[in-house]
Amino acid sequence: LGVSLEENLDLIHDSIRYLRKHFGEVFYDAEHFFDGYADNPDYALSTLKSAVEGGADVLVLCDTNGGTVTSELRKAVAHVKQHFPKVRLGIHTHNDIELGVANAVAAVEEGARHVQGTINGLGERCGNANLVSIIPTLQLKLGYSCIPDGKLANLRRTSHLIYEFLNVAPSKSQAYVGDSAFAHKGGVHVSAVLKNARTYEHIDPALVGNRRRVLVSDLSGKSNLLYKAREWGLDVDSKTPEIKAILERLKDLEHDGYEYEGAEASFELLMQEALHKKSFQYFRLKGFRVIDEKRKEDEDPVAEAIVEIDVSGQSEASTAQGNGPVAALDRAIRKALEKFYPDAIKDLELLDYKVRVLAGEHGTSSNVRVLIESGDKHGRWGTVGVSHNILEASYKALVDSIRYKLYKDGVKAPSAKRK
Questions:
Q1: Residue spans of the chain under pLDDT 50
Q2: DSSP 99
């Protein structure tokens, strides 16, 4: 700033005093406090003293560079609390060494009562302290009152709403609110959770608006399948003969490259059909063709898809364009189905699309796995398709997405028309 140390103290004092005359409460953010304290503790404390003498109500200690380790931060906060026992302390941390949340919580334990942060830790560089982790930690682990009773259950929804505004996919591994935060895969783990949830869950997920998720894979045991069946309202037990058949079917499909950890909707359809001995097909493909054409060097390619389907004996063909072959195929399928299922199709949205080339010895002829995330105003779901042809794999995942939407909405296929 080009000022002397003494002049800096005067600027702090006079600025706070001026603001105090015009506002009922003044917070002093001590920018770079912890780096300054590490370099010159006495002067760092003197800046806080100037702020207090100027009338500051809260001293907010800032780890602006986000590089302070928790043990050093604790010592500094405790030292400040000792010098200013009657002044409220705040904490402002960044996440440059992945300690933003830990440092904020440690500061509260040392006496801070005002915490600055952001939803999902969004912020410059590596981000700010993540309030989505700080709030439940303080409230559920340390017994502090941060927000009104009952409001904590809105935490996951709030976190995801912010991601939605930014058009960013929520982090599945995010603490407390991520899809994987309370997910269980191994059969022994699931069996233990069913007996006593505390064996593998540090809190009840419902407290933060999350839920337990049991993943299904070739590692799954009967416990996983029984849990999923009960989650979907199916009356089954370990002696139900279809359970063993589903396990064998699951292992065969995963041998071919299917993976249901991110595609629970596809697995729910598979399980419902096996247990209820009925189909949720809703429509049958008669054929599709996709053309991807680049007409000029300086123009983007244009994709066009032609789809013909059969719904209860009624044929419907449609054509649609998209900015890629999968987008064109998706639009053509929906266009063909709108005649039969208008409300459900209108409400369906494709949110994410991922392709994974599966390890093999066939190079570009290897199988590919397509994972699609879809959603409507009520929620999101994942589906999967596998094939050596990326368009066929995409078609399978798209179809499962639509089938699941129709099944979830309780839609019935139209009756076949008499000839």
A1: 218-219, 362-364, 419
A2: -
